[in-house]
Prior knowledge:
The protein is α/β, with parallel strands linked by helices. It has a single domain, classed as Vaccinia Virus protein VP39 (Rossmann fold). The chain has twelve helices and seven strands.
Amino acid sequence: MRAAVRSVGADRRGARAVLALPHPLHLFEFLTRSGHYHVGLAPAEAEPLSRAMDRLISACLGRLARGSRVLDVGSGLGGTVALLEKAGFRAVGIDPDWRAVAYAAARSPAGAEHRLGTLEDVSDGPFDAVLLTEVLQHHRDLMPLLARSFALLSPGGFLLVHDPVLLVDVPWERVPYHRSGALAECAARAGFEVCERRDLSAEIRPTFALLGELFEARRAELLSAFAGRAGVEAQLDELAQHVQVLERGFADGYLAYERTWLRVPPAA
Ligand SMILES: C[S@@+](CC[C@H](N)C(=O)[O-])C[C@H]1O[C@@H](n2cnc3c(N)ncnc32)[C@H](O)[C@@H]1O
């Protein structure tokens, strides 16, 4: 992993860095010029999508005390950890994909920490907040995830979740998102207070059209940057198709996008 960290450090945003780590996450990074692999919040006209992606997270930070310790689970390319660190939090990111961790670590501001693993590997709590941004599709059973998060948080600590949810019953094998309400039910069983659940569907939906435009506008540039690397075109098509399926899900009304704030009850 150390060699990979050095090679991406040589070129922070360019094609060579992405070439060093071929992965759908990195194609996405190339397209959006952001360290995020999540939707944007209320993209404004002529604004880069990357800024709206930052806003999904930065809009929440006022609720957390500056200087507090925050764990980002499934931290991907490190965009959220970088934002947190720059905003004065002590940020730790953890992700099971070593390529994502290496990439994030190489671009990260001083002080931010990137670890390889999952929530199960974290044993140095307490944290003041845990963030789960678009990672629930990797957790079919929510109870262990919530119980572990609860155990790692300090009294009064927050668990902040952003994720698509299903509004109809669809087998997990077909669409791996949880039913709307399932998270809040499990969270209450794990001991959390459900502070807020908000449907952000209308605010995030423009993301899909903007991504479609970027797939068109940057396709030639991307294929030229990745020239000679087997499978990139197919990976790009697969990614574009995934975005289209999501867009259709929102248009047809069977998907929504929710932000959920959960809190460990403060000490009496
Ligand atoms: C859609 S990406 C979201 C990345 C990041 N949270 C963001 O908002 O940019 C999902 C991430 O979850 C990670 N992941 C996969 N399995 C996981 C698990 N069991 N626990 C935590 N993260 C996981 C993937 O490697 C990937 O980086």
